[in-house]
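Appendix B, Record 12. Input sequence as logged:
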Amino acid sequence: MGGFTLGVELDGEGWRPEAWRRATHTPDRLLTADTVRRRVAAAENAGFTLATFADSILPGHEIPGRIDAVTRASFVAATTSTIGLVPTVATTYAEPFHTASQVASLDYASRGRAGWIAERAEDSRAAAAWGRPPVVQDPDLAREQRDSIEVARRLWDSWEDDAVIRDYTSGRFLDRNKLHYIDFQGDAFSVKGPAIVPRPPQGLPVVFGAEGPVDVRFVAAESVAAAVEAAAAARSAGDSLVFAEVEVTLDVSGVPAAQRFGETSDGPGRLAFSGPAQGLTDLLTELSAHLDGVRLHLAVIDEDLPVLAREVLPALLRTGVAHRPVPGSTLRANLGLPRPANRYATTR
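Logged structural output:
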């Protein structure tokens, strides 16, 4: 389908450090299934194409604990029908064989709506948590990310689409000639394969990220002009789709965004919007002429998401700037990405 894609980050309570004080539930309800299900359902009903789930092996400053992102995405896979589910899984230290298996399983559970944010773990404390030597130099972080994504994609291709036979009469369930070793040898690890999960419904689930060989590039820029420039640079480098990271603080219940909090953004480098719903609608309409989509980071999920659902997304859908994801379609299809051919089937 393609067009301008709307995504929303649903980790924690929001990007504001004090967001937990404004949640509609008590603090002990954050790490519960009901909270995850309610928020993802609200995002899906509003018309978002995808929801992302941040993650880290290390505790954050505001969130002392979290349920891992793949588990959260998998939990809502069966309770949703159109929204893409995109968890973060670090490429540094994590075993790519396990990552590929997790994301493939999520793709099956969601019937082809899985994605993966491939993110580097740059905090050296993560090495101790994983029990591995620290990886701190940028070239090493980049290599491990590149190799992890490559291994995952090869493993997803290691089963041809028709490798599963299910011939109960003859007792044959697999065509072993359609399973392939990937024989990957890198500087940090080697993987022989094949995968333990058949080829995912999408063929290759969609890989998102700010660095590395991804399908969807996230760009963080502090102005529209800088975001447009970054998108042009990413496309010239060969990226298929480019999304802007946008930090959102809306007027809520008659209270102007500027009065909701005593402090401004902590300067994460993202494009920041603060103001009424109509202003955000205008900003997203402007961005739609230059980028393929956005990922919105909300100041307080429980306060800002209802305003988005009530005022912003209906306006964007009405004018044709954005479109609801098509029921029964995969995330790749809703992003306008083709289902890729299996590399081993075409070379066998």
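The radius of gyration is 20 Å.
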